[in-house]
Structures are given as structure tokens and as C-alpha cells.
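User: Hi! I'm working on a homework problem where we have to compare a predicted structure to a textbook description. Could you give me the structure for the chain below?
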Amino acid sequence: MKILFFLIIPFVSFSQFSLTYADKKIPTIAYYKDEISIPVDSVNDIVNDLWNKHINEQKKDLTRKHEIDKSYVEIDGVRMNFSLSRKGKKPSEGYPLYIALHGGGGAPGNVNDEQWEHMKYYYLNSIDTGIYIAPRGISNNWNLHFESLSYPLYDRIIDNLILNNEINPNKIFILGFSAGGDGVYQIAPRMADRLAGANMSAGHPNGTSAVNLFTVPFMIQMGENDAAYDRNKEAAVYHLKLEFLRSKQNKGYINELFLHDNGTHNSPWRDNNPNPSEYAVITNAKEWYNGLDKKLKKKDSNAVRCLNKFTRTPHPNHLIWESNTRANSRGLKAISHYWLSSTNPKGTIEVSFDNNTFIIHQSDEDFTIWIDPKLVDISKKVIIINNSKEIYNQLVAPNINSIAKSIMMKNDPELIYIAEIPIKINN
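Assistant: Happy to help. Predicted C-alpha cells:
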């Protein structure tokens, strides 16, 4: 594998990206098109100024305010209704956000509506402080929570709450039961850099890869006897896959399996008991899967309490990204994962960072490293190493264009980048 780098970073306009549903409206900051270099000691001030400009521009968008007030978002005529509940006093850094996905799926509309009504309160009593959102699936199909347009609609809800200064972007959680659990399996790997954690209850993975969960703590809850579609066995297998991935890295892939002893699809175990309660769970998933004697331990399986201990790390020093596990309908957000981006997904990109040095462990595709000023010391040279060879060693020039593009790409004050290093790979 031969890797080339560009000493001169060409400007790439927004129009050159694949603009889809999520990118219909481009605010003024998108027109900072010139690669204007900025002094290193001015970076933080300029980043803050541009982010504040972005917020002020978006606050003029009456559609966003209407969406929050009316509890729905809409893209291309497809509407996602949602309930929104606030609990407790807002922390200075913003509320935690809990997105809870209802059961049903593959059923008449009235059945899915009943399931949605149930989810509006299902986890709510377990939350002391936070914003609780229960979206209604956008169809009545079995995959009602992960239709193509579901993803940019979730992004729109999250973006609105961030821009309205309501939520802490480092405390966003997704939870779901049954068909909602199906959704969690699909959404968490495709929106991994937005999430602080995920809880999947009583769902089926439907072949979804776990690779992108390197940075996402993932809770799996299942009744031992919930055998429809082999959900119980699939839950154990998914847990074992995560454990295998964790053993390869010796870090990341935090997960926990609550395989509830003698549980069915939704009883007698609970993942939403607001009172501290322990339920017997099977601790030896591999042996259980192979028909051997099970070992039991009592654990508190409340999904909210399990997730609350986690906070997103917005400036990770090691990324593993299966770039073709993405939702293309997310537009610019789909092409990136933290400080990596790729417009031509082929497989897995793995890069680590230490002592101002990026080490490329794996990639079969061209990609871009975005420079995170909270990770990289931009007063020093940045080094890139591949196959034990130094392929890049120079100072990186911060520029306004990269800052503006990253704001548009991420819409997240914690994920703003100041320069780009495109990497071209020739096989």
C-alpha cells in the first residue's frame, strides 16, 4: 500500500460534496470559501466567533423554532412527530438528551401509535434531569425507525436542540424496545460520533456491524426465552462480537449484556424500573449459547441509570471507522466520523494519535484527517506515519474555510476543526 499526501490543500466547495436531504439550507458561514490562514494564537477566538455566528444565523430560521414548538420535523414531505419532556433544572452545560424509540413495526398505524404513546412515558420516570424525546417512527414498516429519511430527521431534532442551547452535545443517548431496539442496533453505528451511549432492549441486529461502536458504550437487554427471530441468541452473539473487538484493541467497545433469566420478550424483567431494583441475569453468555449451565448474578438493569455514567469523548485519540456503515441520507454528516472523513467508502479506517503524531493502522480508501485544536498542538509540526514510515511532517496552517466547513458538516460546538490533511491511498 502506497500513501501520498498533499502539501497544498485545495479548496473543496460545499457543492462538490454529495448534498442530499440534510443539506438543503446552507447558512452564510458556508460562504467563507477562501482558505484564509489565521494566526495560531487567534484560533480559539475565531472558532468561537464563527460558531456564535452560525447560532445567530440559525436562530433567524423560523422553521427551526416552529419545529420545536410544534414537536415535529419534516424533510421532503416526510414528517417525524415526537413528544418532548423536560425534567429538572437545566445544568450549565445543557440537559442530557434521551431519544427513546417505541415498539411495534410491521403493524397497522393504530398499533404503532399505541406503542408510541407507551414510549412517551416508558423511560421518563427514570430521568431526574434531562430532555426526553420519543419520536414516532416515520412509517408503519418493520424498519420504521431506520428508514432512509429517519436519520436526517434525528439529526434535525438534535441540531435544533443544540442550536437552541438546550442540550449537552456530549450527553446524547438513544434507547429503544422491540422494534425500537431494532432501531438502536442500526442507528448507533451510523451516528456514533453523536452518541454518549446506547441501550438496545428486545430487538434484532439484522446483520448490522458492531465495528463503529468503538467509542459508543452499548447496553444489550434481552429475555433469555425471547426466541422469536432468534433475538435472544443474536443478543448474545452481538455481545460476544463486541467483547472480541474489545480484546483486539484492549480498550473501547464498552458493552454489557443483560440476558434476563427466564425472561420473555417483555417480562418479568424491566429496563425502566425507576426504583433501584435488581434482576437476575446470565453472566456466561458463551456457555449459555452453547447449551451449558448458566451462571446468574443480580444487576440493576435500568437503562437510564446504566447510560448516565457515560459521557461522549469529543476529542478521541484513536478512531476505528467502518466508513461504509453509514446513512447516506445524512448528507455531510454521513461522510465523517469525528476527525476523519471519506467520500468514497470502502471499508475500515483506523487511525490513532499520540504526541502530535497520527498513525494510520488501516485504510483501503482515500480519506481526510481534520485537525482538532483540542487534540493537536498546532504550534508544533504534525507527523503522519504509515507502515512505520513518516509520510507527513510539517506545521499545519489553520484556515477559516476548514472551520466553516466543519461547522456545517457537524453542527456541533465540540467537533469543530481548523484544517484538513487529505490522504490519498494507491493500492
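For your comparison, note the following. Residues 1-28 have pLDDT under 50 and may be disordered. The domain at 71-308 is CATH 3.40.50.1820 (Rossmann fold). Good luck with the assignment!
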